[in-house]
Amino acid sequence: MDTPARTVRRRALQLRVLQGRSRVRRAFVPVLQAAVASSAAYAFAFFVLGHEMPFFAPISAWICLGFSADRELRRVAELGVGVALGVGFGDLVAHGIGSGWWQIGVTLLAASLLARFLDRGQMLTMQAGVQAIVIIGMPQMQAGPVGRWTDALVGGVTALLVATLTPGDPRRHARTLGAEATTALAEMLRELAAGLRTHDIDRVRTALDRGRRTQGLLEDWATSAQAGLQNTRLDAASRRFRADFRLLVRQAEMLDRAVRSVRVLARRAISMPPDADVDSVGELLGRSARATQVLAAVIGAGSDPTPARGALRDAASLADPGSLGDAGWQVQSLVMLMRSPLVDLLEASGETPEAAREALPEL
Questions:
Q1: Which Pfam families has this protein been placed in (predicted)?
Q2: Which of these three, 165, 196, 225, is where a domain ends?
């Protein structure tokens, strides 16, 4: 028979497994493409160019593509140039003045300043410096002052070809993360509602743990949305998506605030008296969970948010602590705590702050 502590651990493990499967599912296609590109770059340098150990060809391809679906051509090109610049400059220096502690400092200084001169991109400068250090610190693996630079160039060009031939909507990754993060909040609310209705504190603790584990996903969403917005300022082709990314950045901020508020509510619910009448709170949380799930679908598809607004307004109409009668101040405090995340969710659906607050019953 499971003890309460064992039940919480089992549910936490199930949550970790689900989150891990979600990350693998999102990363599978990008990783597969990067793996194929790295193998192709190595094969080209080995069989076509005749390099015995084309170490930097697959490294360059992997660095440029990575495991993320955020593959704007400018970013891939910037990384490729940075890797090739660092490798080529390091190769020339190593053949000219050798390798050693002071050569690393000189090479890093020169390669980084050259990268800053060529472009303002931070990734280009970072990769140029890192690869220059690697080249100076590694023994020579093949003859010629530019052999490894050629391998790095092959990897970068291969990565650029893959990114060009597999174009995608730059908003897709951020929207997918947003839908998953919002769904995680809906599941947290659903678990919390079930725990309150059945007076199962273990389920309430599971909901709180679920909310804590959502933080990484929220941060990934915010980072992806911010990167997409930044890219619209640099890439003319992505400029038409600026409003969409601004909305995604705003939604990520609102959902982060909502999750934090619901975590506070869950911590308060753990200490709720076992005989408290929490049916009305369970109904409020259950309705909020269903509305949040509608919002998740809207964010994932980038579709009309009207259905989500309507569902959230229906849930907000229940957030009236004065309607609870003699339920007690503890129960009323849970309703009060739910008002703030409902406002955040309404703002994430596109409501103005004023309209979101007006959707709540007056106190």
A1: FUSC_2
A2: 165
337's tokens: 């705590």
Among candidate residues 145, 259, 171, the one with its CA nearest the CA of residue 211: 259
List the one residue out of 150, 161, 162 whose CA is nearest residue 31: 162
Residue 346 lies in a domain: yes
| DSSP SS3 for 137 | helix
Tens-digit pLDDT profile for residues 28-59: 888 888 889 889 999 998 999 888 888 888 88
Q: How many domains does the chain have?
A: 2
pTM listed for this prediction: 0.69
Residue 174 phi/psi, 5-degree rounding, is -65, -40
Instruction: Report how far residue 334's alpha carbon sits from residue 140's, in angstroms, rounded to the nearest whole number.
Output: 67
259 in the same domain as 308: yes
| Torsional sign, CA 39, 44, 47, 50 | negative
- Structural domain contains residue 363: no
Instruction: For residues 356 and 212, give the distance between their C-alpha atoms in angstroms, rounded to a whole number.
Output: 26
Its domain, for residue 59, covers: 4-165
Q: Are 184 and 258 in contact (CB under 8 A)?
A: no
- In angstroms, how far is CA 26 from the centroid of its own chain? 11
Give the end-to-end CA distance of the chain in Å, rounded to a whole number: 46
Residue 246: which of 254, 257, 256 has the closest Cα?
254
Can you tell me whether residue 178 is helix, strand or coil?
A: helix
Residues 141, 199 within the same domain: no
- pLDDT tens, residue by residue, 68-88: 666 667 778 877 888 887 787
